[in-house]
Amino acid sequence: MSESKKAVADSASSVDNHHDREDPYDTPEDRKLLRKLDKHLLPVLTTLYLLSFLDRSNIGNAKLDGLTTDINVPGANYNTALALYFIGYVLFEVPSNIVLKRFNPRIWLPFLTLTWGIVSVCQGLVHNQAGLFAVRFFLGVTEAGLFPGTIFVFSMYYRRRERHFRVAIFFGGAAVAGAFGGALAYGIGLMDGVGGKRGWAWIFILEGLLTIVISAAAFFITPDWGHSASFLTDAERQRFLERLAADSDAGVQEQFSWRLVRSALTDHLVWAYAFLFHGFAFVLYSLSLFLPSIIAGLGFATWKAQLMTVPPYALAAASIWVTAVIAAKYKRRAIFIIISAVVAIVGYAVLIGTNSSGRQYVGVFLATAGVYTGNALLLSWPGENVSGQTKRAVAVAMQISIGDIGAIAGVLVYRPSLSANRFRKPHLISIGYLIFGALVAAYLWTWMARENKRRAVVRQNLAKTQPEDVEKQAVEADREERLLQGDRHVSYVYQV
């Protein structure tokens, strides 16, 4: 191979994911560095997300303990309260990620946790419908920045092929929160009457206080940006920046620019990632918020329904982590997202098509495992495939914001007027949303695979027809050009 061709190949291989080449950044020292990064990022951030999901979804458990009856929230007004959470969430996600990009995660993420912990406690102090509406809206506002912020932080610490497994571990906190929340709600519910408060109030108060206590500790242990992380030695930081620079833009301190915000808003792939989550968010949040009611509707007593939410969530957590390992091994996302959608569709079909409570409970297991696994995989995709730090921060926030419009639709569909035949119509609509999500995943898969092939041909032709010019660009200026063009550069290879 000529020197010019080798330069082009080296430039492409820095972002390529072909597996027949030895990875120069997967040495024992690199694996040790990764374990150190995981130690300082995953436990604290996963714990914060577990608390976030617990504090947003425990209202489903509180409803079974008499929340809506005690404060007079009739019929579909409960669904309105759920929707108000997501309205606040959607409105403040992109602004929150812009704030994070301009400042740092060490202060911003624990601050968000502290504020939503306070709001969560206030849920246990409401006495009427207006109070519930207000507190749910502000809970959405305060929780809005954690998930997209964490996904962005991961993109600044890990190479692209290393991110999706960490995101899956992180998102697994949602499933653990569901399992933990059901058991915790059952135990706290036994405090009914203590201090003159109902059991549902204690669910909000105690779980909110737990969030506040952990947020105080998070101020001291949440990491800053990688280039200034205090837990890295000088040698580790140098290697850390080197491996990021060879893979993406994460090792560069990019200045904020509104031009980069516009580049995200005009990218069809960014919108596709958002619509993908839109389809899956409908089922994710309708399932997480109504699972206790769905199980109680199968004929089980309230206290049994609280406890019976635990096994499906435990299966979902295991499914997330096992599938993440397999997806990482084969370096694929789309196919596993589609398979997850199919599993969830089968689960909903069982819920619709059978009359036996036992069989329908099996459907709950399948739906929960498929829905949570698909979400865990798709939420890492824009973090892997959108290059340019500001563009990626906006893309991640857009994905969650537009996705959560699907969540608003989901919580409004599972209303009392549509609860006949054990939520038959809402379950059918859920299947429709899952089909939509699977089709969007197929579109992303097809477009990016074709674009990867096209760019490979372009690189080969450049190496053959313009050796001197290409060599000069690859050796002297290609790095700068790649950073400028981001994921639109010819050497950029999408993770499919």
TrEMBL record:
PROSITE patterns: MFS. One of its GO terms (cellular component) is membrane. Gene3D superfamilies: MFS general substrate transporter like domains. It comes from the Eukaryota. The chain crosses the membrane at residues 79-100, 107-126, 132-155, 167-188, 200-221, 269-290, 310-328, 335-354, 360-381, 393-414, 426-445. Pfam families: MFS_1. Keywords: Membrane, Transmembrane, Transmembrane helix, Transport. It is found in: Membrane. GO terms for molecular function: transmembrane transporter activity. It is a multi-pass membrane protein. Its main location: membrane. Residues 1-28 are annotated as: Disordered. The keyword Transmembrane helix applies. Residues 16-28 have a biased composition (Basic and acidic residues). Residues 41-454 form the Major facilitator superfamily (MFS) profile domain. This is MFS general substrate transporter. It comes from Exidia glandulosa HHB12029.
